[in-house]
Amino acid sequence: MGRPYSMDLRHLALDRVASGESCHAVAAALKVAPSSVIKWVQRHRQTGSAAPGKMGGYRPLAITGSHRDWVLSMIEGPDHVTLEMLAAGLLERGLKVHPASVCRFLHREGKSFKKNRSAGRAE
Fold it and tell me: Nearest to residue 106, comparing CAs of 71, 61, 73, 78?
């Protein structure tokens, strides 16, 4: 992901637009996209500042609460389950997740499949 343009550049663009130049002419002179200058002007009109908004963020976990309890009970049970089976079961329960999300959830919970030395290899 790229990083936002500097505030110096944004202020320079806003000053030039305020003096009467078009957004496209300012963008060409400063070698930035016209859409960037247009968005800076719009943001300045709406908020009084052309400062960039927050980038990135935190995405909450999908498998929580009763879904978490269900998945953990399924893997603790005697039956063999796969990631695809768990994802399908969650879909039936109203939560659409990819099997990779289930794998990341299990990893966060400290659950993993390890071969048992005494059991030997799968035949």
Answer: 71
- Whether the Cβ atoms of residue 103 and residue 111 lie closer than 8 Å to each other: no
Q: For the segment 111-121, what is each residue's pLDDT rounded down to a tens digit?
A: 876 655 665 55
Judge whether 122 lies within some domain.
Answer: no
Name residue 36's amino acid. S
pLDDT digits (tens, 9 = 90+) for 102-112: 999 999 998 87
Residues 43 and 70 in one domain: no
In this structure, is residue 91 part of a structural domain? Answer: yes
Do 86 and 63 form a contact (C-beta atoms < 8 A)?
no
Q: State which residues form the domain around 79.
A: 65-108
Helix residue spans in 20-82 (DSSP H): 23-30, 34-47, 65-76
Number of structural domains the chain divides into: 2
Tell me the three state secondary structure of residue 19.
Answer: coil
The pTM for the full model equals: 0.52
